[in-house]
């Protein structure tokens, strides 16, 4: 459920944020602002006993001279002028799989009951995966490592199939990512209604896509060396303001041909949103759409930390 105002011009909304302990702060937001969506969604989840993943709100105030920071569980109410009612958060029930809108911290495409769940691709996208401080340190680290990136390749050595650059070793941040993924993995499995499994190695690499970079249709577990990969994850980060377009991740539904999973015609499209992470099954066929980066500058690239969670069996 999400707050929308279709075909209505966004308007200013005065929002008084009520916090635990009697604290409050008033800000003005546009009616279609993602921050307003997130604040309202946090309250709705609490009323439905569906807290989701904790979120750290970091809101500029005093014309950017200060910042209001608080964990989502400390939000107790909102006073809005003009009024925004929670009834507006009830969209029609979709008849086909849809992506939950980007303002919601955890995205899980909805699957109708009559569809074979094993053939429909599902993913979880989690917002604000790193703290603002961690993300800023990561960007600074990557920019200092520009000379150490090398061109990527594929196991089949196919030409013009993949264009990107990779940094294979970045111990200052790879262990942070692995530890964070281990901690959140049980929640991801629960949200996607998947059984637990014995976790083996978690692999990590740091990649960038610049102008006209892409990765054509493939999966991540189609060879004997990769057969134990269960989950693929992609963490997105970039400088602000974003200087590229494109680079969406397309995850295809499956069909079975000759006892193999192959790509169906239908797919989900995942936006490469800054400081979000996506999890999906490694057997899914997927691709990275071409990136447009007019400046062609290294610092303006679409950066990711991506990798795989392996089973031990």
TrEMBL record:
Keyword Lipid biosynthesis found: no
Domain of life: Bacteria
Database matches in InterPro entries: HIF_prolyl_hydroxylases, Oxoglu/Fe-dep_dioxygenase_dom, Pro_4_hyd_alph, Pro_4_hyd_alph_FE2OG_OXY
Cofactors (names): L-ascorbate
Keywords: Dioxygenase, Iron, Metal-binding, Oxidoreductase, Vitamin C
Record-linked SMART domains: P4Hc
Cited PROSITE patterns: FE2OG_OXY
Annotated Fe2OG dioxygenase domain residues: 172-311
Name the record gives this protein: 2OG-Fe(II) oxygenase
Species the sequence originates in: Microcoleus anatoxicus PTRS2
Organism ancestry: Bacteria, Bacillati, Cyanobacteriota, Cyanophyceae, Oscillatoriophycideae
């Amino acid at each position: 459920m999400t707050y929308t105002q279709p075909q209505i011009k966004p308007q200013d909304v005065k929002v008084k944020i009520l916090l635990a302990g009697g604290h409050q702060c008033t800000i003005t937001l546009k009616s279609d602002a993602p921050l307003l969506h997130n604040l309202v969604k946090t309250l709705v989840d609490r009323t439905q006993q569906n807290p989701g993943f904790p979120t750290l709100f970091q809101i500029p105030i005093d014309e950017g001279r200060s910042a209001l920071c608080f964990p989502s569980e400390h939000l107790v109410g909102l006073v809005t002028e003009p009024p925004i009612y929670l009834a507006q958060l009830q969209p029609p029930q979709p008849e086909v799989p849809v992506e939950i809108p980007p303002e919601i911290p955890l995205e899980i495409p909805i699957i109708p009951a009559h569809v074979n769940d094993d053939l429909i691709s599902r993913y979880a996208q989690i917002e604000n995966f790193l703290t603002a401080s961690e993300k800023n340190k990561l960007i600074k680290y990557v920019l200092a490592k520009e000379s150490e990136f090398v061109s990527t390749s594929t196991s089949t050595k196919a030409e013009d199939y993949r264009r990107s650059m990779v940094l294979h070793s970045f111990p200052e941040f790879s262990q942070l990512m692995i530890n964070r993924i281990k901690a959140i993995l049980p929640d991801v499995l629960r949200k996607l209604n998947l059984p637990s499994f014995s976790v083996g190695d978690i692999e990590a690499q740091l990649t960038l896509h610049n102008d006209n970079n892409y990765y054509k249709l493939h999966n991540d577990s189609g060879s004997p060396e990769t057969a134990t990969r269960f989950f693929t994850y992609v963490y997105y980060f970039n400088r602000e303001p974003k200087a590229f377009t494109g680079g969406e991740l397309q995850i295809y539904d499956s069909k079975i041909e000759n006892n193999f999973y192959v790509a169906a015609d239908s797919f989900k499209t995942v936006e490469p949103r800054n400081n979000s992470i996506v999890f999906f099954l490694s057997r899914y066929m997927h691709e990275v759409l071409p990136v447009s980066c007019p400046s062609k500058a290294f610092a303006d690239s679409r950066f990711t930390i991506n990798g795989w969670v392996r089973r031990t069996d």
